[in-house]
Specification:
By secondary structure, this protein is mainly α. The protein is globular. The termini are far apart.
């Protein structure tokens, strides 16, 4: 009876775990895909016609900062409500702001290039045009940290690069055909491609610098988010003033409930995506998170093609598959390398322990058999 009861408890626990994982992955997919579509609508839909992408990004940072302050206030009143997400007691110190500032510059570049890329290219092409992040990871890891990459990982990067250039070529042909049939359709934006490449660069650089800057905020990602967005608001204020967006913001006539609701929703999703990403890694694993992200990109691409009623060639889809395959293969190669490195370190630790034990035995006067 006891074994049957234990088995039932185990099965219930396992089902609960599966339900939790399914819910978290679905939540990650929903927030990530929704954020891309909402941002695309705000940035480039003709009904919105708001030509101030830097202000949109500024407002997203503002929303993130407000939510951080709100969570901090809730944490003061009822600490248990924020402890489960690891939210700290916030502080604002000039010395910390200065230490985080280099990362904040990269952070601003990253979110700005992401939004500018999304403004000028379609959602269906968004995944491919930003697919060089992995390649830049390899380059910057060597350039900044001096770490070399295996030949298998470099081969995966080569597949991604081939898929990227094939995708650009096929998207250009697809847009040219659309423009030939419809005078209102536009051709492939070179600016969008350039912004996509720059976005990939900044995303990679941001991940590398984050590891170096985290100790300045006691390793707390929420605190880093808080300081990044404070610095980001300061930087965006100067960028908006310097790029001539102020007259556009002042003279825009489309302000209304719908506009601000979408802007605020976009800002809320911007902070939520960071939380659900960490949550997905927590309930699964980094490898599963990367696989989930790749699968999400596939679904996002298909949804975009259907939603915007686009017609894509077989070669266009093959280019997407190459990027997806290269990214997934790279993740798998890095996981195997990490496991091998971990096993080697564990073996070396055991050998070191054995040598210490033998030395200790000899020192006590015992004879080795």
């Amino acid at each position: 009876m006891g074994s049957i009861s234990d088995r039932d408890n185990y099965n219930r626990s396992l089902r609960a775990k599966y339900v939790e994982i399914t819910f978290v992955v679905a939540l990650y997919w929903f927030i990530s895909i929704s954020m891309v579509f909402i941002n695309k609508y705000i940035l480039s839909d003709k009904s919105v016609n708001f030509e101030a992408p830097l202000f949109i990004t500024f407002y997203q940072c503002f929303c993130t900062l407000v939510i951080c302050l709100l969570l901090n206030y809730i944490g003061i009143i009822c600490p248990s409500w924020t402890q489960w997400i690891g939210f700290p007691r916030l502080h604002c110190r000039p010395a910390v702001m200065r230490k985080v500032f280099p990362l904040s510059v990269v952070f601003v570049g990253m979110i700005t290039m992401n939004n500018l890329c999304l403004k000028y290219v379609g959602v269906a092409f968004y995944f491919v045009v930003r697919s060089l992040t992995t390649v830049f990871n390899v380059i910057l890891t060597y350039a900044v940290l001096g770490e070399k990459t295996s030949s298998q990982a470099i081969l995966c990067c080569a597949v991604i690069i081939i898929g990227f250039f094939m995708g650009v070529d096929q998207e250009s042909k697809s847009k040219a055909q659309e423009a030939a049939l419809d005078d209102t359709a536009s051709t492939l934006s070179i600016s969008g491609v350039v912004f996509g490449i720059l976005a990939s660069f900044f995303v990679s650089l941001n991940s590398i610098l984050t590891k170096k800057i985290l100790p300045a905020v006691d390793g707390n990602v929420w605190m880093l988010t808080f300081y990044n967005n404070i610095n980001g608001l300061i930087l965006f204020t100067f960028l908006i003033a310097g790029t001539g967006e102020v007259p556009v913001i002042a003279n825009y006539e489309g302000y209304g409930t719908k506009f601000w609701a979408l802007m605020t929703l976009s800002g809320v999703f911007a902070i939520c995506i960071g939380f659900v990403t960490g949550l997905q890694i927590k309930v699964t694993s980094p490898l599963t998170h990367n696989i989930s992200g790749t699968a999400k990109a596939c679904v996002q691409t298909v949804l975009a093609v259907i939603w915007f009623k686009e017609i894509k060639s077989v070669m266009w889809w093959i280019s997407n598959m190459l990027v997806i395959f290269g990214s997934a293969a790279y993740t798998r190669v890095k996981q195997l390398e990490m496991c091998a490195k971990h096993d080697l370190e564990r073996c070396e630790t055991r050998e070191d322990g054995r040598e210490i034990l033998l030395t200790s035995v000899k020192a006590d006067g015992d004879v080795e058999s």
